[in-house]
Amino acid sequence: MKEFDAIIIGGGLSGSSTALNLSKKGYSVLIIEKEATGIIKPCAGGMASSMKQYLPLDIDQAIESKIRNVEFRWESSDNVNADLSGESPFWIIRREKLDQLLLDEALKNGIEILRPAQVEEIISQNKTWRIKCSHKDIYKSKYLVIADGSQSQWAGYFNLGPRKPKFANTIALRLKGLGNIPKDSVRFEFGFIKYGFAWAFPLKDSVNIGLGTFINNKLLEDEALNNKVLKSFGFEDLSFEKVHKKLRIWNGTHKLNGDRVVAVGDAASLCDPFLAEGIRPSLISSYFAAESIHQCLSSNKSDLNTYSIKINNEWGKSMAWGKRIAQIFYRFPKTGYQLGVKRKTAPKRIAQILSGQMSYEDIAKRVIKRLLTNSQG
Ligand SMILES: Cc1cc2nc3c(=O)[nH]c(=O)nc-3n(C[C@H](O)[C@H](O)[C@H](O)COP(=O)(O)OP(=O)(O)OC[C@H]3O[C@@H](n4cnc5c(N)ncnc54)[C@H](O)[C@@H]3O)c2cc1C
């Protein structure tokens, strides 16, 4: 029976990028993926271009738009525009293409993938994982990576991430044509969706549209309202398939590793609870998971604690503020829109958040400083 350095459960963005990062270091990897072929992911594909630092390959083929402008609206009016001039900080990528590029490159480096396959049982024996799959074969590995996404079955089993995960409710559509969305612009539409917002991100010849609610587990079941939102993006023919997805969002600082096991991406509950940004934390967590496993394999230690610490520092601290901002903004969205989005400096800050130059923590500290200065003056 062949033994791998690492077995990864889930071959989406996080699983494929962890596999690629490990394969670049020369490790043997097996991905176990439950779907037969790459399915279209309900993901709008908005990604900070600064993330290329975590990608060990050229992803030009997956980039469909380079965004120069961000538009915010309150119920189809009261527009605010943020100019993302200069070096393009925000891309719209075709998600299925990005996942495939990562997987193909990892396969070229010698990783293996088993699909479609479901993991049925995981046992630890003499510091080795023994993983039993649906067709009864057993695979062995030294390390285990949980990358099975928002509906993760295994993160909870290993006590990784929050005990009670929080979810955003989302609807995703890919509509043909660009509606009224300019080619190099993304739009955030507030006011229509209670406890959330809608977004439209353009690909070359279609638009990824999303509707999301982020607190109180609010459902998106008002069809007439949903259609009104789609019409606000310039679409009349709404006979397209809508995909409903519960997206696991960040919900506190938690351990993301156990003994020889880590969770990455959505399985680790890393998605931004304010704007649903999940590509960035998926790539960051995959990168550092591979680094930590490499450190263990190359030094014969098995302490993965550095991984949890790194992710909580690099991402969790900002998300703690993102969660607070979401709780206030989505409860009082009109005030949030007027006082936050419409501030004179907002466009610049928004550009900095989307490009990854600024975190929610930086923004919150600025606001607190401003409030303190005003109250003293
Ligand atoms: C509507 C919507 C729009 C979004 N838009 C954006 C955006 O514009 N920008 C952004 O940054 N983020 C966005 N996100 C978030 C982003 O899509 C996710 O954070 C990202 O997909 C996480 O990748 P992942 O690999 O962790 O999970 P996934 O991509 O979900 O991959 C998980 C994989 O595991 C497999 N799997 C599941 N269970 C098992 C199992 N038991 N055994 C084996 N395999 C299994 C699945 O088949 C899948 O291939 C959006 C999310 C939604 C829902």
From TrEMBL:
Domain FAD-binding residue range list: 4-153
Protein name: NAD binding site
Species this chain originates from: Prochlorococcus marinus (strain MIT 9515)
Record NCBIfam families: GG-red-SF
Sections of the chain in a coiled coil: none
GO MF: FAD binding; oxidoreductase activity, acting on the CH-CH group of donors, NAD or NADP as acceptor
